[in-house]
C-alpha cells in the first residue's frame, strides 16, 4: 500500500471551518478514484505545529500514484478546492510496510 500524505497550512483569510468543509469534499470525491482505498484527514495536536492540517490518501499500490495524479476527479479537486486554500504544503508518497 502507498500512503499519499500532505501536510499543509491554509491561506490567512480562510477559516478552520472552510478547511474542514474542503477536506470533507476531498474525502468524498477522491474516494471515487479507482485504486484509492481510503481518505482521511486531521488537525495538529500541538498548537505550535509547523503544519496545522493533513490529508492522507491510501493507494492500492504504486501504479495508482500516476493514475491518481492525472485523474480528472483529482485534478478538479486539487485545482478548484485544495490548492487555492492549502498555500503552504508538503506532499510525499510512502510505501507502507506492515
Walk me through what this model shows:
With 98 residues, this protein is α+β, with helices and mostly antiparallel strands. The chain has one domain (2-95): Alpha-Beta Plaits. Helices cover 38% and strands 32% of the residues. It contains three helices and four strands. A four-stranded antiparallel beta sheet has the order 2-3-1-4, with helices on one face. The chain is globular. The model has no long low-confidence stretch (mean pLDDT 97).
Query: How many runs of DSSP E, i.e. beta strands?
Result: 4
Q: Which outline best applies? A: globular
Span between N and C termini? Answer: 9 Å
Range of strand content:
25-35%
Number of domains: 1
Using the coordinates shown, work out and report the CATH topology: Alpha-Beta Plaits
Spell out the helices and strands N to C.
EHEEHHE
Gyration radius, in Å: 13 Å
CATH architectural category: 2-Layer Sandwich
In the CATH scheme, the class would be: Alpha Beta
Decide which structural class fits the backbone: alpha+beta
Helix percentage range: 25-40%
Break the fold down into its secondary structure elements and pairings.
Blueprint: E1 2-9, H1 16-30, E2 36-43, E3 53-59, H2 63-70, H3 72-85, E4 88-95
Antiparallel strand pairs: 1-3, 1-4, 2-3
Helix pairs in contact: 1-3
Subunit structure: Homodimer.
Organism: Lederbergia graminis
Protein name: Dabb family protein
Amino acid at each position: 500500500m502507498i500512503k499519499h500524505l500532505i501536510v499543509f497550512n491554509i491561506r490567512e483569510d480562510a477559516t478552520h471551518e472552510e478547511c474542514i468543509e474542503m477536506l470533507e469534499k476531498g474525502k468524498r470525491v477522491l474516494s471515487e478514484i479507482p485504486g484509492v482505498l481510503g481518505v482521511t484527514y486531521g488537525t495538529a495536536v500541538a498548537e505550535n505545529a509547523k503544519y496545522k492540517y493533513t490529508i492522507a490518501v491510501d493507494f492500492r499500490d504504486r501504479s495508482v500514484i500516476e493514475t491518481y495524479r492525472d485523474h480528472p476527479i483529482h485534478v478538479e479537486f486539487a485545482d478548484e478546492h485544495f490548492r487555492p486554500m492549502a498555500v503552504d504544503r508538503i506532499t510525499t508518497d510512502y510505501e507502507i510496510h506492515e
